[in-house]
Amino acid sequence: MAEQDWKANKRVFAAVSLPTLLWTLLFFVIPMAIVWFYSFGENKGLTEIEFSGTLENYKRATEYLYLSIFGKSFAVAALVTLICLIIGFPVAMAITFASEKWRPWLLLGVMLPFWTNLLIRTYALMMLLGSQGFANKGLETLWGGASWFKTLVGLQPLPTWEPVQLLFNNFAVVFGLVYVHLPFMVLPLYAALDRLDRSLIEASLDLGAGHFRTIMRIVVPLAAPGIVAGVMITLIPALGAYLTPDLMGGTDSQMIANVIERQFKKANDWPFGAALSFILIYAMFILIALQAMRKKVPEVR
Amino acid sequence: MALFARTPLAPLEYSRTLWMRAWVGLVMLFLYAPLIVLMIFSFNDSKRNVVWRGFTTKYYEKALGNDVLVEALVNSLTIAALATIASLILGAVAAVMLWRFRFPLKGAVDGTISLPIIVPEICMGVAFLIFFAKWLEWPTDLIWPFNLGAIIIAHITFCFPFVTMVVRSRLASFNREQEEAAKDLGAGEWGVFRDVLIPHMKPALVAGALLSFTLSLDDFVITYFTSGPDTITFPVKVYSMVRFSVTPEVNAASTLLILLTIVLTAVALKLQGVKAIAETH
After folding, report:
1. Which residues of B touch A20 (CB under 8 A)?
2. Do B264 and A264 touch (CB under 8 A)?
């Protein structure tokens, strides 16, 4: 459909564009620009910040300590994305091929946790994983069963059960992030699989390929745009996650968002925090640019 | 639920195979078990969370008697309601702008409007902290509800791009001949907008409203940075409760909020039907 030139109807254009443009400029562009300027400033005294155009903050961000935190955040986010993909792909397949009656309800089942408060979900998970929680109780029962079985066959019983530390470590952070981000992965995967031409799958099966081979050779390549979208939608928020590592992580599970928070709330080094924020934003831009480049490849071929 | 299928499986009926069902069942268990356990144990008559000591509603009484918690909940609902209304207007108008007009720098404007979806929450939180506390020296001691102003502005800023996204994809299916027909029949610009365009956008507006409301109610990080020392919202309050002591009171308050989410979802389902809601994501 043809778009109208803005000059053809200036009054209507002004009515629909001014509110948004002004709002975005005032409450998004300007605040972000201020952070950007702060990242080139330095602390002078307790509350004063001088905009000296220094690159000192960025230089400090490349110190080993901060680089390793960035690296770790990427590794955690990538691992979370991979686990979500492995868990989510069969779920998306199941939703796609479910009967008309079931499909919307399955989708709703995946979406409802996404609408539930993140803090509540994190708290619920903490309750379950705590040293007194059900995960530990379940493991204890299994352990007791194994011990009983060993005595039954005439061996020494296992030593007494020690609760496993499931919370406040890196495992808990990955587990919590997978729990929170799984719906993000399933929904775009479903959207891509739903658009798939089913006769191609049928053809592959008719020509003698097994189900697994059909999925790997036909479904996955055709659903690639959806897979990439799902990966991005999971990876980006996981990389900037604050709440899960803060509440479920240990002292060594800090991710980049926690370090940024500390600069503003505790260490009171706003310029350095601003520089870290912008490095994180640049990282997002690079990821998105990579995705955009990937999109162009099939056109070239 | 025919686990043992009476009709033979067709090749593409993946969701009827046993291992697929088991997988989906396990994933649903993974997603829901923590929430269900949390809800059940909000009725547990024990300070420690894990052993069932009998049914009680005393933690609900305690949660509802906790003035700070109730104030936080009222604040959160007020913020979410106001932010949703403003986001709907702003988001719909932006969608119409991007859908209808061709103008210079359109790509840049489009990109900037969708940026808040991508920029990490922590970075936006930091930006609002500097902007309101340092730059504007926004007063923090206003009377209710004006003390929520900064938070509401922040919430609108990250909610309305989602509304724009949903409304825009809905507008793509609009038949412009309807607009021309309305104009031929004597409707002005405003009349077309009100009587033709808005009815067409309605499903997207419902979905956008639900999305904004839950995003606003959900937000912790941006609010945590934007709020002054005296304004507290539900997630911020729950955060400090979880941080410093885990009590069944948190379970009770959380259960109430989960129920609210379910009610909202049910209302949206009633308005739009399960298919339309499922398709907006």
Report:
1. 90, 93-94, 97, 113, 160
2. no
Q: Is the dihedral of CA A165, A167, A173, A174 positive or negative?
A: positive
Measure in Å the smallest separation between the Cα of B273 and chain A Cα atoms.
10
Q: Out of A38, A116, A137, whose CB is closest to B258?
A: A116
Which ipTM value was assigned to this complex?
Answer: 0.85
Mean pLDDT by groups of 10 residues along chain A of 301 residues: 76 87 94 92 76 84 91 95 95 88 87 86 87 77 82 78 81 94 91 86 85 86 88 92 91 90 88 94 90 64 39
Whether omega before B161 lies within 30 degrees of 0, making that bond cis, reads no
Residue B45 has pLDDT above 90, yes or no: no
Tens of pLDDT, residues B205-257: 988 898 899 899 989 999 999 887 778 899 998 888 888 766 778 888 889 88
Q: Say if the Cβ atoms of B93 and A270 lie within 8 Å.
A: no
| φ, ψ of residue A251 in degrees (nearest 5) | -65, -25
Q: Tell me the shortest Cα–Cα distance from A156 to chain B, in angstroms.
A: 30
Whether residues A104 and B154 touch (CB distance < 8 A) is answered with: no
Smallest Cα distance from B94 to chain A, Å: 6
User: Given phi > 0 = left and psi -120 to 50 = alpha, else beta, which region is B105?
Assistant: left
Using CA coordinates, name the residue in chain A closest to B276: A104
Nearest to B122 among A28, A127, A257 (CB): A257
| Chain B residues inside the 8 Å CB shell of A24 | 112-113, 157
CA–CA separation, A177 and A125 (whole Å)? 11
Cβ contacts of B112 on chain A, cutoff 8 Å: 24, 28-29
CB contact under 8 A, B218 and A205: no
pTM of the model: 0.87
User: What's the CA gap between B192 and B214, in Å, rounded?
Assistant: 31
Q: Which residue of B has its CA nearest to A131?
A: B50
Structure-token pair, residue A104: 């919307």
B90: nearest CB among A23, A116, A198: A23
The one-letter code for the residue type at B49 is N
Question: Helix/strand/coil (H, E, C) string of chain B?
Answer: CCCCCCCCCCCCCHHHCHHHHHHHHHHHHHHHHHHHHHHHHCCECCCCCCCCCCECCHHHHHHHHCHHHHHHHHHHHHHHHHHHHHHHHHHHHHHHHHHHEECCCHHHHHHHHHHHHHCCHHHHHHHHHHHHHHHCCCCCCCCCCHHHHHHHHHHHHHHHHHHHHHHHHHHCCCCHHHHHHHHHCCCCHHHHHHHHHHHHHHHHHHHHHHHHHHHHHHCCHHHHHHCCCCCCCHHHHHHHHHHHCCCHHHHHHHHHHHHHHHHHHHHHHHHHHHHHHHHCC
Q: How far apart are CA B281 and CA B92, in angstroms?
A: 17
B90 vs A19, A99, A128: nearest CB: A19
Identify the helix (H) or strand (E) that includes residue A49: strand A48-50
